[in-house]
Amino acid sequence: MKIWDGSPEGAFRSSKWTGDIRGVLLPDIHIPIHDWRKLEIVYECISDHKLDFGLQFGDLLDFDALGRWSKDKPGKVEGERMVHDFGMAADFWDSFTTAVRSKNPDAKVYGLEGNHEARIHRFCDEVPYFKGIFHLPNILEFDERKVQWIPSFSESQMLRLDWKNKALYSRVLGRSDWTAGTGVAFIHGWYCGMHHAKKTSDSYGRAMPIIYGHTHDVQVYTSHAFGWPRPFSASIGHLRLADAEYITGPDRWHPAFAFISLAAESEGIWDIQIIRICEDVFGNSHFFGPNGKRYTSRVIHGT
After folding, report:
1. Which of 72, 99, 120, 121 would be a feasible disulfide site paired with 47, CB 3.0-4.6 Å?
2. CA distances from 115 to 61, 62, 225 (A)
3. Strand runs labelled E in 166-248
4. Where do the H-state alpha helices sit in 165-277?
5. The domain that contains 68 carries what CATH number?
6. Which residue has the higher pLDDT, 168 or 87?
7. Domain that holds residue 76
8. Where is 161: in which H helix or E strand?
9. H or E element at residue 148
10. Are the CB atoms for 158 and 178 separated by under 8 Å?
11. Residue 284 falls inside a structural domain
12. What are the tens digits of pLDDT across the range 174-225?
């Protein structure tokens, strides 16, 4: 499969009424330890909106067996099978693309590579015999599903929605371009810690807003700056089960996802709506969509 070389892909099909561009953003999911109940109502919400694109920020797959937490501990991943994980990942892409394209069959769908998917590269470096076999775009049939794969983590690439000639174009650019240009940039994420949004904004957000996943929490930061636009960075949570064994105390993790809108006719006008998913005492999930509709996974204790 040909990896995007960064050339403009073409103008989005704009909204019928306003010409604006709307998309949905899904953060880390970590199959097979994903929260499928939350995903089901997220798909329902996505299907209720006409969108121009959908983006998954990476760490779709956890690849626990390839991580350092499992190294030299075969019993820790006993019963787990990569082929099963690939099957669930294929199911995700079918559900996600169907939801994104439910009201616009021409909507574009993108997938970023996260640090967990990049574990494949480290594994193949240790066992070169497998190089060329574990190529996710081929395994998950992205060409057939019309999904654009971006090696965000291993090759420092990003997706940028850029204003050009009063139309939005999609590009994949390298890290050297993160401090130049206009539009909104999407990366998997590089930093963790208490102030990761500030560090991301200070490091890469001098020219354009940067939205990312990776941290599993919701954090927004604007840098000090003269003029406009002000540097802006935001992380958008996670959609995995919050039961990681390496979390031994309180954490900042929060299930969430986001919708983003960009004005195709006015450079620099955009907005992001981060939707935090809440849980009741029974473990059911709830959130309000951009349309004001309440979405809930409650099926046992009434509605």
Report:
1. 99
2. 10, 9, 31
3. 167-173, 184-187, 210-212, 218-222, 232-236
4. 196-204
5. 3.60.21.10
6. 87
7. 22-278
8. strand 158-164
9. strand 147-150
10. yes
11. no
12. 766 666 667 888 999 989 888 999 998 888 766 788 999 999 999 999 877 6
